[in-house]
């Protein structure tokens, strides 16, 4: 695992922040008891009200950090109104945190289709059956919707992607790495995008 706690100067850090993220993420996969790919996604409504929830990272590359969700959900509506978001990974097992901020784009239909085809059958059905974030009268309403979708696609494998189920990619403009330190004197390493390059800075804890 890449150790940033020994950095004396920011320019000694890797030029690409994904090198650090990748190393930490791979370690977290072996140490976190559940969902090392979980990240807090924060969005803002058109009138400036914030909202946060946990989602799962599906890919991290130089293109950005990707997740998939129902565009009719609250977060989907937020992103349609304000295409800027923040992510936060917190891995307690290794006492590290990563914060990401940037604009968000919807991935193309072929990429979204390819991912949806990999989902277990029950989750494919659920994508159609659940009116995500809408109010529900009783749980039996959801069960009835699931059965209706099961009947509709009983001879279809894989179940196709609903048109409102999309992939989103957060294109980072700012990434901060936080490494726990004694006496709350943590190491904080900030990357800020400047054109095609990253500018590195150490922050006071």
Describe the structure.
By secondary structure, the protein is α+β, with helices and mostly antiparallel strands. It folds into two domains: 10-117 and 164-203, Roll (Pnp Oxidase, Chain A), CATH 2.30.110; 119-160, no CATH class. It is built from five helices and nine strands, in the order αββββαββαααβββ. It has helices at 17-31, 74-81, 109-116, 121-129, 139-152; strands at residues 38-44, 50-56, 59-61, 64-70, 84-91, 96-106, 165-179, 187-194, 197-203. Strands 1, 2, 3, 4, 5, 6, 7, 8 and 9 form a nine-stranded antiparallel sheet that branches. A hairpin with a 2-residue loop joins strand 3 and strand 4 (64-70). Helix 4 crosses helix 5 (139-152). The two termini are 21 Å apart.
């Amino acid at each position: 695992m890449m150790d940033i706690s020994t950095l004396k100067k920011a320019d000694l850090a890797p030029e690409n922040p994904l090198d650090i993220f990748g190393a930490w993420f791979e370690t977290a996969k072996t140490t976190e008891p559940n969902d090392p790919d979980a990240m807090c996604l924060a969005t803002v409504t058109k009138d400036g009200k914030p909202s946060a929830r946990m989602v799962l990272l599906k890919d991290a590359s130089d293109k950005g950090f990707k997740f998939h969700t129902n565009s009719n959900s609250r977060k989907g509506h937020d992103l349609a109104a304000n295409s800027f978001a923040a992510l936060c990974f917190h891995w307690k097992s290794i006492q590290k945190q990563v914060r990401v901020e940037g604009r968000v784009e919807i991935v193309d239909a072929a990429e979204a289709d390819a991912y949806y085809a990999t989902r277990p059958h029950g989750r494919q059905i659920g994508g159609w059956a659940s009116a995500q974030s809408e109010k529900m009268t009783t749980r039996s309403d959801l069960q009835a919707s699931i059965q209706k979708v099961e009947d509709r696609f009983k001879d279809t494998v894989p179940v196709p992607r609903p048109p409102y189920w999309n992939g989103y990619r957060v294109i980072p403009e700012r990434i901060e790495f936080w490494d726990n330190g004694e006496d709350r004197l943590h190491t904080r390493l900030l990357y800020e995008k400047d054109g095609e390059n990253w500018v590195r800075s150490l922050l006071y804890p």
